[in-house]
Amino acid sequence: MTVRVMLVDDQVLLRTGFRMVLAAQPDMEVVAEAGDGVEALEVLRSTKVDVILMDVRMPHLDGVETTRRICAGGQQEDAPKVLILTTFDLDEYAFSALKAGASGFMLKDVPPSELLAAIRAVRSGDAVVAPSTTRRLLDRFTPMLPATAAEPVRPEIGRLTEREREVLLLVAQGLSNGEIAAQLVLSEATVKTHVGRILTKLELRDRVQAVVLAYETGLVRAGGGAGA
To answer: Whole-angstrom Cα distance, residue 9 to residue 156?
Structure first.
């Protein structure tokens, strides 16, 4: 199945470079481009897109707010997934974009092979791209959020079974389904089922939102440890 990709970046040369890389792939097609968030939202009204490569710092409407508006529709299966492109690792814009609903983020100088793998992973529903990097980003910026340690955990957490809560903690620590399966001595298919139930019960779009929630509620503390 061809992955329909949209490029959103105010730098034409960067879009050209990404388009050349993607055009060489038999399973990918660049179906749209935009130079800012306003243009991107307009194009999306008439163009079917699977994955959006989104810059964060753009004129008129930045990538964070654009991502928020794109992801505001909830959990529609055909909604486009957003991959944030950032110039700097541990960028506060990338953190905000993850909270807004992005499925992950990558550096703009990422090797082409990693970019292509990330696009395919996001398209297939494995939303966490570079889990260790995503966790480092959360470790860096979560302490800047209003304190949540004294606040009650979201009531939805109580809907999780003990096993689902265990899986959520491991997802939040950056483990893949395969790594979780090995640690809990389960099949990878069983772990995938648990993750799906967690997302449904917590009304979350994808794994990234599960990671953010685990940090914000104190289930996982900055540094990767489990909360109280």
So the answer is: 37
How many residues does this entry show for the chain? 228
Pairing of strands 81-86, 28-34: unpaired
Name which of 45-49, 213-217, 220-224 the model is least confident about. Answer: 220-224
Measuring CA to CA, how many Å separate 151 from each of 96, 192, 209? 21, 30, 19
pLDDT tens per residue across span 76-96 = 567 899 998 888 765 677 778
Q: Determine contact, residues 142/122, Cβ cutoff 8 Å.
A: no
- Calculate the CA dihedral of residues 206, 211, 213, 216 and round it to 10 degrees: -160
- Can you give the pLDDT at residue 206? 78
- Tokens read off for 61: 């409407």
**CA–CA separation, 223 and 199 (whole Å):** 23
> Phi and psi of 59, rounded to 5°?
-75, 165
